[in-house]
Amino acid sequence: RLTGISDPSVAQSELTRLTDVWQSLGVTGGLAQDRFTRGVAEAEAAIARREREVEEAAERARMRAEAIATRDALCQRVETLDGDDLPAQLSVIEEEWRSLLQLVGDGPEAAALAARFAQAVAACRKRHEMSGVLAEMRERLEALVAEAESLPSQDDEAAAHARWQTLSREARGLTATLKETSNFELRTSNSEDPVQARLDAVGQGFAA
After folding, report:
1. Fewer beta carbons within 10 angstroms: which end of the chain, N or C?
2. 39 by DSSP, 3-state: which?
3. In angstroms, what CA-CA distances link 139 with 76, 135, 158, 193, 201?
4. What backbone phi and psi angles, to 5 degrees, belong to 100?
């Protein structure tokens, strides 16, 4: 009867109750006592097995939870990576991911985490690539603004005006692209004034 109980604590309580009842009967020997003793031993063995099973299941659940948390943390790290050394940081995290043991039980959750990590890595590489492109655009914009600001001092006004037309078109195109792709604040390294305002100031000089 007790060997089929799934909860070992319930089984142990029931075994204790039955043992108390048996002892209250005053049976001290014979076939009945032997049979009861064997039954108690079988029940105790079954309870012990079930206790081990429960402990092992709890340990597996704990390990799985830790594994999931580790993978989730790695995904978050990749999703928030930044800096000039981004490729090196990413390489370290990818190595950590490869070193992880297979997730206990696998299943949809493991597949989802693997897909999330792969997507995060791809997005991270794209982010780094784009940051290089944006840096080049910022440098180009800075150079255009600096050149534009030097035009009013040139002796050849016609050439300066023609050059301004070319510079202003390219500069405005760059500022528009930077706004769309990186929320660029349009501030250059040698001034706290917005680039647009600096360009407008040069333009006003030519329009005067």
Report:
1. C
2. helix
3. 31, 6, 27, 16, 20
4. -70, 145
